[in-house]
Design brief:
Mean pLDDT: 96
Oligomer: single chain
Number of helices: 6
Low-confidence stretches: none
Shape: globular
Distance between the termini: 23 Å
C-alpha cells in the first residue's frame, strides 16, 4: 500500500526525470519516425529512458516504492515497448541477460 514516502519518491523521480531531459526522450520515442526495432543504446535518449525505467523497476522490485502507485502513474509497458528492443540487443551483444531486467519485469506486470 502506497504511503506519503512513496508519494514523495514519485515526485523526486519526476524531478530527476525532468532534470535528465526525460521529456525530450519521450518526445523522440513517441515520434512517428521512431522505430523501436531500430532503437539502440547508442542513442542517448533511449539510454535515458532505460536508465530511468530500470531505476524505478529496481526500487519497486525491492519494495522501496509501491509498484501499484508507479503503474498508476506511468505507462511503463508503453515505454518498454519503445526501448525494450534496444535493451534486448544489448543483452545479446554483452551476454548479460540481467541488463534492464527490472524495467522489463515492471512493464510485464502492467501489460499493454
Amino acid at each position: 500500500m502506497a504511503d506519503r514516502q512513496d508519494g514523495s519518491m514519485i515526485v523526486q523521480l519526476a524531478q530527476w526525470g525532468s532534470a535528465m531531459g526525460l521529456e525530450e526522450a519521450q518526445h523522440a520515442l513517441w515520434a512517428e519516425d521512431f522505430d523501436p526495432e531500430a532503437a539502440s543504446v547508442d542513442d542517448v535518449l533511449v539510454t535515458r529512458v532505460l536508465t530511468w525505467g530500470e531505476t524505478i523497476g529496481t526500487l519497486t522490485k525491492n519494495g522501496l516504492l509501491d509498484a501499484d502507485l508507479v503503474l498508476d502513474w506511468l505507462w511503463v509497458a508503453g515505454l518498454w515497448s519503445r526501448v525494450g528492443p534496444a535493451a534486448r540487443k544489448l543483452r545479446e551483444k554483452t551476454g548479460v541477460p540481467q541488463l534492464y531486467e527490472n524495467f522489463e519485469a515492471l512493464a510485464s506486470r502492467q501489460g499493454t
